[in-house]
């Protein structure tokens, strides 16, 4: 009887394969830690207060530059505005991205902007509970300092203020600032232009209660976050290298299966599907985003990752089910609908949530599902349902792993009484299952450990004369690790051309009824 390659591979060869995979794993961490810069860069901006006259305000087409030859007429603070009798509706907060003498680049891939209000405490103008800040925001771009600004997006947005005043609310403490939470402001899925300009107005309308009860806003601060160009190039290079690697082993794996006289079993199909989903992630279509303004790349990337994780979770369930070693026939996907159902439903909920957020941002980059109470409740509902599905899946998986180990204990006691072919068959199943469990736990542990390290450390370590970028090492290392995981699955669990022994064909037929593990003759 023939089983998977891992069952027939000698210990020496298995160790060699393991060492090679570990070397590639170490290399993937080193690429991110020693070659790539930090994954992202955060740049802080303080909005410039520009003065808009009534005439230009009605035109609605003038863009206000905070600096440069065509800079706007500015004021230092609102006290100066009151002295000059400038109304709040004629004040425009202007922010130019990037800073002077710099340029944005398509290699930055995306641009996320966070907003924070500097609000001073005043006894006669305090922040009311549940107050909303209404903003008239516009985004423009240009690729040369000689060109005119072109409007990219314009919208009226509302953000709920969440501020806390830590001191006692007395006249003595007037002028001290509230501690306000950061607010989501804008997300652009492509940085196709060199210069961007944000104009923000805070219109006041006492009759409609617009921007009433939001305190005395002194300044607006923005934080722009984008991917580093150097990290993008390293990331693209990794995807370009890994795509043919996984694709070649996937073709080899499926060719080996089709050479058999029987049709592929469910376990072989799910491993092949896992390889397809990994290849789908690896295909470096991001290269085109450097030359094209593809704002949908962030959404597309989320969809690709979702498909891979759904296939990975489904594979673990089916792999456990196919190694239960009982007399039940499970070589059909419908048998696992109870376990796979939560995966599909949870993935669908997260997809809907992503479409409600990044899908809408394709038209309006200022949109945030968290900006309104209804959107927040809807988003939390999707996330909670997905979390419940994840818990159900985890319980199903733990129960199936428990069943497999319980059956393993029962089979071990009866192994000596079996014929050689049957004994080797069950020993192969046991070894195959335990090996994958060990590797899977190691990969999951590495993912969690490096994620925690990347969150609690300062972003880089100094090691001798080298600077190790921990966050970059986390991204490239974990990405390389799951590629190696899928690569090892397709190589080690492909059908083998070796025999266990010279048992009769009737022995093979008996075993075929008990398991759907790969069986092949020379």
Textual characterization of the structure:
- It contains 13 helices and 13 strands.
- By secondary structure, it is an alpha+beta fold.
- A five-stranded antiparallel sheet has the order 2-3-10-5-6, with no helix packed on it. A four-stranded antiparallel sheet has the order 1-11-4-9. A two-stranded antiparallel ribbon has the order 7-8.
- The longest helix is centred in the C-terminal third of the chain and has 42 residues.
- The chain is elongated, with a radius of gyration of 30 Å.
- The C terminus is likely disordered.
Characteristic key phrases:
WLS_GOLD, disordered C terminus, alpha+beta, 5-stranded antiparallel β-sheet, Rhopdopsin 7-helix transmembrane proteins, transmembrane helix, 17% strand, Wntless, transmembrane, Wnt ligand secretion mediator, 4-stranded antiparallel β-sheet, single chain, 522 residues
Would you spell out the secondary-structure blueprint of this structure?
Elements lengths: L4 H4 L2 H25 L4 E7 L1 E4 L2 H6 L18 H6 L7 E7 L13 E10 L11 E11 L7 E11 L2 E2 L14 E2 L2 E6 L6 E7 L14 E12 L1 H30 L7 H17 L3 H4 L7 H25 L15 H25 L11 H42 L5 H37 L3 E4 L2 E4 H23 L12 H10 L8
Antiparallel strand pairs: 1-11, 2-3, 3-10, 4-9, 4-11, 5-6, 5-10, 7-8, 12-13
Low-confidence stretches: 499-522
Largest sheet: 5 strands, antiparallel
Determine the CATH topology of the largest domain: Rhopdopsin 7-helix transmembrane proteins
Strand order of the largest sheet: 2-3-10-5-6
Order of helices and strands: HHEEHHEEEEEEEEEHHHHHHHEEHH
CATH architecture type of the largest domain: Up-down Bundle
- The level of helicity is 40-55%
Mean pLDDT: 83
CATH class of the largest domain: Mainly Alpha
What is the 3D form? elongated
